[in-house]
Design a protein that fits this description.
The complex is a heterodimer of chains A (433) and B (171). Chain A is an all-alpha fold. Chain A folds into two domains: 254 residues, Cytochrome Bc1 Complex, Chain C (Up-down Bundle), CATH 1.20.810.10; 128 residues, no CATH class. Chain A contains 16 helices and two strands. Chain A has a two-stranded antiparallel sheet. In chain A, helix 6 runs antiparallel to helix 9 and helix 11 packs across helix 12. The longest helix of chain A has 32 residues. Chain B has 171 residues and is of the alpha+beta class. Chain B has two domains: 42 residues; 116 residues, Rieske [2Fe-2S] iron-sulphur domain (Rieske Iron-sulfur Protein, 3-layer Sandwich). In chain B, 23% of the residues lie in helices and 27% in strands. Chain B contains two helices and twelve strands, in the order H-H-E-E-E-E-E-E-E-E-E-E-E-E. The longest helix of chain B is centred in the first third of the chain and has 34 residues. The termini of chain B are far apart. Classes of the chains: A mainly alpha (433), B alpha+beta (171). At the A-B interface, helix 7, helix 8, helix 9, helix 11 and helix 14 of A face strand 8 of B.
Chain lengths: 433, 171
């Protein structure tokens, strides 16, 4: 009897730790996998994987241009599971960008960004930025041709931000070009500053979720019964976690993280590409004036995202992916238009002569900046007007269609940049890249 | 007790308390500013050890006759190209694309510099032939002394267009 009592107590205290994260009971309806796809939990697990593998990698990595590359070679070739360790860190990093982004989309679709969840949404946006920054700073560390030039291109993007851009770039690089001070800065950011910020913000993010009463609940499920966190939620989380872990292990044992020749500042590889999550930006840069591509468009997107929770709306779209069948059709239409528009835009600017050669006396700020920007914005505006009239959309559905349009067209740019740009960044078929 | 404090000379005390409170606030702001200034100065570019002094920036690239008229010669160590015009004039161009910092490559067939990153192209004087490069390749004035071609790496110059004073003639 007493023994039984003791085990029960131990069980309880073990469970107690979980209660720091979860309430004792949750709404049964929120357990449905297709409501959240377990993406937030996956992101949290990926943080743990990255911290553990990162700390292990730190035992073998040497942050200096002379030795960084060799220390990676050494890790891969002479250390038991060294290559596996690096592969796990690499593929988890990529998975992290995907998972965080999909998690954000899920939140946007299910209306979980509105107050009182605005704080969760905004800390989430900050976390998304930190995840990308973390990826980017880690990209330089192997000091191979891929990382050197990706970081050169990536940081040069900054110099087009008016006024503040060049000082920021120089502070980040610690000089005029990528070198030892850059590696020192990036190493410290990647292994110290950014992880600490992510962990701190994660705590805040989680606390905001708890304060808002957990996962978003749809109106129709408000009356749904409560379920015990253990076992119902915990077991589901466990399944998602081991599935993700297994997937990462399988991928990491089949595919090696890329490592090219040692960095050579005199030769850019042809083509030289930014890290994949910046390829949409780099593709945009081929078509747009840099001021628009790296400043006005991204800042507009960021401001819109921060502003999103505060757009007045009385729609009850919380906890449902789509408010009405018309909303689904509108989102489909927006996706198709975004895709077609982006493809037309890319091919047009490939076929048409260069505006700078055609009209050399007009400033490029106008010909490759303002004019295409107004054309694109105008098309989007007309489309949205049409969608609203045709489907008589509610406001939240309008926002949803805009998000779909933006995400799909940016995805097309990214895919084009990664798979359809060959030597000299010319358009080619993927099998010729 | 506390009642007495409130009563006697309360105006006087309140004023003093407000003053100290404001003083704390100001001190706090000063401390924060100092802290930020400290952080920013830590992040300032160039941990100076890697910077060379101005006097060290002159480089001898080679002798005049090593560069035939109408040629483009890369100098990968100093990250520049030595261009010699058909009439014998010298021009040194930066290897770095002004668009996003990739290294441009000389294509002898088409007689132009190509950027591998975003397909900008420049003619042999570094003038933009196709965008997205926002300006010509930066140039360095060439110095010719005693039959040697020299450049001052500290004198990298941005420019809007080609002008003949960017060229240097061997005497």
């Amino acid at each position: 009897m007493t023994e039984h009592h003791a085990t029960e107590k131990r069980e309880k205290s073990r469970f107690g730790l979980i209660l720091h994260l979860h309430p004792r009971k949750v709404k049964a309806s929120t357990l449905r996998f297709t409501l959240t796809f377990g993406l937030g939990g996956m992101a949290a697990l990926l943080v743990v994987i990255q911290v553990v593998t990162g700390l292990l990698l730190k035992f073998h990595y040497e942050p200096s241009p002379e030795n960084a590359y060799n220390s990676i070679l050494n890790l891969q070739e002479s250390l038991l599971f060294g290559k596996m360790l690096r592969n796990i860190h690499h593929w988890s990093a990529i998975a992290f960008v995907w998972v965080a982004f999909l998690h954000m989309l899920r939140t946007a679709f299910t209306g979980a960004y509105r107050p009182p969840r605005d704080g969760t949404w905004i800390t989430g946006l900050a976390l998304m930025l930190l995840v990308v920054l973390s990826n980017f700073t880690g990209y330089l560390l192997p000091w191979d041709q891929l990382s050197y030039w990706a970081v050169t291109v990536g940081t040069s993007l900054l110099s087009y931000i008016p006024l503040a851009g060049e000082p920021i770039r120089r502070a980040l690089l610690g000089g005029a070009e990528v070198g030892q001070p850059t590696l020192t800065n990036f190493f410290n950011l990647h292994t110290g500053v950014i992880p600490l910020m992510i962990i701190a913000l994660m705590a805040w993010h989680f606390w905001r979720i708890r304060r808002a009463g957990g996962v978003i609940v749809a109106d129709r499920d408000k009356e749904s019964p409560m379920a015990d966190t253990k076992p119902y939620l915990v077991n589901r989380e466990f399944v998602v976690a081991i599935t993700l872990l297994a997937a990462i292990f399988i991928i990491s044992s089949l595919l090696d993280a890329p490592l090219r020749e040692r960095a050579n500042p005199a030769f850019s590889p042809n083509p030289a590409k930014a890290p994949w999550y910046f390829m949409g930006l780099q593709e945009l840069l081929i078509h747009f004036h840099p001021l628009f591509a790296v400043f006005i468009l991204p800042v507009t997107a960021l401001v819109a995202a921060v502003w999103m929770p505060y757009i007045k709306s009385t729609d009850r779209n919380q906890g449902v992916w789509f408010l009405s069948p018309a909303g689904i059709r509108s989102a489909r239409m927006a996706a198709a238009t975004g895709m077609i528009m982006a493809i037309i835009f890319i091919t047009m600017s490939e076929i048409l002569p260069d505006p700078e050669v055609l009209l050399p006396e007009v400033t490029p700020l106008l010909t490759t900046g303002l004019v295409p920007f107004i054309l694109a914005a105008g098309t989007v505006w007309l489309l949205l007007k049409y969608l609203r009239r045709r489907y008589s959309l509610k406001r939240s559905e309008m926002i949803q269609s805009i998000v779909v349009l933006m995400v799909v067209s940016y995805a097309v740019l990214t895919v084009t940049g990664i798979f359809f740009r060959g030597g000299g960044m010319n358009l080619v078929w993927p099998w010729n890249v | 007790m506390s009642g007495r404090i409130k009563d006697t000379g309360s105006e006087h005390r309140k004023g003093r308390r407000n003053f100290t409170r404001r003083l704390w606030k100001i001190l706090g702001i000063v401390a924060l500013a100092e802290f930020l200034w400290f952080i920013l100065s830590l992040l300032k570019p160039s941990k100076e050890t890697h910077k060379s002094r101005p006097a060290d920036t002159i480089r001898v690239i080679g002798s005049v006759e090593e560069f035939p008229a109408g040629s483009v010669t890369p100098d990968r160590v100093n990250r520049l190209y030595i261009v010699r015009e058909k009439d014998g004039a010298f021009l040194a161009l930066s290897l770095t694309c002004p668009h996003l910092g990739c290294s441009v490559l000389w294509n002898a067939e088409t007689q132009q510099f190509d950027c591998p990153c975003h397909s900008s192209a420049f003619d042999h004087r570094g003038i933009v032939l196709s965008s997205p490069a926002p300006r010509p390749l930066d140039y360095l004035p060439v110095i010719i002394e005693e039959g040697k071609v020299k450049v001052d790496l500290g004198s990298m110059t941005k420019r809007k267009r080609f002008e003949s004073n960017q060229l240097t003639y061997a005497l």
